[in-house]
Amino acid sequence: MMQSVLKKRPLMRTMIAYGFVNVTADALEQNLISKKKVYDSLKTVRVTLVGTFLVAPLVFNWIRLTERLLPSKKVPAVLIKVLCDQFLFAPVAITTFYIGTNILERQKDLLAEWKRKFFPTWTTGMMFWPIAQAINFRFIPWELKTIYLPCCSLIWTTYLCYMKEK
Where are the transmembrane segments (predicted)? Predict the structure, then answer.
C-alpha cells in the first residue's frame, strides 16, 4: 500500500528521499570529514528539516516547471535548462539552505553566514551541478528523477554540511 501511495505522490517520494539524503550527508560530514568527537544530532535534525520540507519541494517543483516549459531533451533545450538551473534556481536553493538552518539555529543575524558562504558555495556548485543536471535533463525519465536527483544531492548536501560547519 505504501508503495502505491509513493508512486501516486512523487512530491512525497521526493521529500522522503531528501530526508534520507540529508541525514546521511550530515552524518558523513560529521563523522568522515570533520571527524567530530561528539556527534551533533541537532545539526542533523536542522539540516534534515530544511532539506526535507523546504529544499525538496523547491527541487521537485523547479524540475517539474523546467520540464513543462522546455520538454525537449535536445541539446539546445538541455543547455537552456542547465543555465536557468545555475543562475535562477541554485541561488534560491543555496539561500534556502543557509537561511533555513540559521532560523532553526535561532541566529540573530540570519544573513551573516549567507553573506560569507553564498558565493563560494555557488561557485563550487557550478563545478558539480551543470554536469549532473545535463545528465538529468537529457537522459533521465521523469519517473526516475526522484531517485537520480537525491543521489546527486547526497554528494552536494555533504558539501553543504561541510560549508555549514566551516
Answer: 44-63, 75-99, 119-140, 146-162
